[in-house]
């Protein structure tokens, strides 16, 4: 058997041979014949490793981690759509809630102003049957349908998912009633030979009206009529304005003009084309009705005469 001194000599010789042949650990360095061990973080070691197998293993584990994180994230909302919904009075409105990774969780719709539960999944939980939950499984959509909405239905609605704690997405419903106005209504006075400019304004429509029709005494205006000089200009936008222009106004142009936008209420103006007569005189003549003091005096005198 070898003595302890002989064993030590063999080990020293083995180390010298290793140093001369450059047989070092991948994670060791030698400087000035002094042994120094330098450790690297695990991730850095794998990145700098010349082993293709180690690199592939690291890449696959990251891939799995990303997939696992996505699966473990739980339900979340797709917020790409607008949170503000504008609807017309009486026209069905939809509040759309798009949910990802829903799994087996429950979706509820709640009205914010009174915390009233409206729907749970596809079931309506309110006596107001105008509220209906509509599900599109392909898109992950859970929409709240509001039939025949009224202005009182405006407000905040909340789509909730039954996680712990629950997650919610709020939407704002604005139910508006279109308003149509004509400048100068109900009565407009124009001098003979002047240009009649009737301006019809349409507000609170979710989109500009497809058409705006003008009528004169309930008959559609013919812009190609022999009379000539009648034209219409319409500017569409958030506020739509339609101008009816009648050049060289005549007495026959007097009458009732009505502006009728599609999907909005009509509005009417009475046009009086004057032939040198003052509007005040016409107004005084038109104001002789049952509430006039003169009319009351005449009725009293007639009653006294017949009582005799």
What's the topology here?
Blueprint lengths: L3 H17 L7 E4 L2 E4 L4 H7 L3 H21 L3 E2 L6 E5 L4 E8 L6 E5 L4 E5 L2 E2 L6 E6 L4 E6 L8 E7 L5 E10 L2 E4 L4 E5 L4 E8 L8 E5 L2 E2 L9 E6 L4 E7 L8 E7 L5 E8 L4 H8 L6 H15 L1
Parallel strand pairs: 4-12, 14-21
Antiparallel strand pairs: 1-2, 3-5, 5-10, 6-7, 6-11, 7-8, 9-10, 11-12, 13-15, 15-19, 16-17, 16-20, 18-19, 20-21
What are the main properties of this structure?
22% helix, alpha+beta, elongated, 5 helices, single chain, 5-stranded mixed beta sheet, 308 residues
Please, could you describe this protein's structure?
This protein is α+β, with helices and mostly antiparallel strands. The protein is built from five helices and 21 strands. It has helices at residues 4-20, 42-48, 52-72, 279-286, 293-307; strands spanning 28-31, 34-37, 76-77, 84-88, 93-100, 107-111, 116-120, 123-124, 131-136, 141-146, 155-161, 167-176, 179-182, 187-191, 196-203, 212-216, 219-220, 230-235, 240-246, 255-261, 267-274. Strands 4-12-11-6-7-8 form a six-stranded mixed β-sheet, with no helix packed on it. The chain has a five-stranded mixed β-sheet with strand order 14-21-20-16-17, with no helix packed on it. Strands 3-5-10-9 form a four-stranded antiparallel β-sheet, with no helix packed on it. A hairpin with a 5-residue loop joins strand 11 (155-161) and strand 12. The longest helix has 21 residues, at 52-72. The N and C termini lie far apart (164 Å). Residues 23-59 and 281-292 have low confidence and may be disordered.
């Amino acid at each position: 058997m070898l003595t302890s001194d002989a064993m030590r000599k063999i080990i020293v010789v083995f180390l010298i041979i290793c140093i001369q042949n450059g047989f070092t650990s991948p994670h060791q360095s030698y400087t000035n014949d002094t042994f120094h061990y330098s450790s690297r973080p695990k991730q850095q070691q794998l990145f700098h490793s010349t082993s293709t197998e180690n690199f592939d293993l690291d890449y696959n584990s990251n891939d799995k981690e990303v997939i696992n994180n996505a699966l473990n994230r739980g339900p979340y909302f797709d917020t790409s759509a607008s949170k503000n919904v504008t609807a017309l009075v009486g026209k069905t409105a939809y509040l759309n809630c798009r949910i990802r990774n829903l799994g087996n969780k429950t979706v509820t719709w709640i009205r914010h102003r009174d915390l009233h539960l409206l729907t749970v999944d596809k079931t309506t939980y309110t006596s107001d049957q105008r509220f209906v939950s509509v599900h599109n499984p392909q898109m992950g959509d859970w929409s709240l349908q509001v039939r025949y909405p009224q202005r009182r239905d405006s407000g905040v609605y909340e789509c909730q998912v039954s996680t712990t704690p629950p997650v919610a997405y709020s939407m704002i419903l604005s139910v508006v009633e279109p308003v149509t106005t004509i400048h100068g209504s109900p009565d407009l006075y124009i001098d003979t030979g002047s240009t009649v400019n009737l301006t019809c304004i349409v507000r609170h429509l979710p989109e500009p009206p497809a058409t705006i029709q003008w009528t004169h005494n309930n008959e559609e205006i013919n812009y190609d009529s022999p009379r000539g000089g009648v034209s219409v200009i319409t500017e569409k936008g958030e506020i739509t304005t339609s101008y009816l222009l009648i050049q060289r106004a005549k007495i026959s142009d007097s009458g009732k003009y009505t502006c009728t936008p599609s999907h909005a209420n009509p509005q009417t103006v009475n046009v009086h084309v004057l032939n040198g007569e003052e509007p005040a005189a016409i107004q005084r003549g038109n104001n002789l009705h049952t509430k006039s003091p003169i009319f009351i005096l005449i009725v009293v005198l007639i009653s006294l005469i017949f009582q005799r």
